[in-house]
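User: Um, any thoughts?
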Amino acid sequence: KLMELWDEVVQKYNQELETIVRAIASGSADNFATYRHMVGYCAGIEWARGTLSDILKKRMYSDNEDD
């Protein structure tokens, strides 16, 4: 059940990243401040996805050691 939740969260993160990356690539940032904001937003999503992944891996490893 935890992995299903993880898969759903990662899918949402990936969808949002794809949306923002496409917007950046299409030139929708009308100035440098907006561009920086969009890039920072992507970095934040990637950080959140990576951090959550690390936490879940540690938890799953810890749970397996307890068995």
User: Anything to note?
Assistant: The chain has a mean pLDDT of 90. The helical segments are 2-25, 32-66. The chain has two helices and no strands. The longest helix spans residues 32-66.
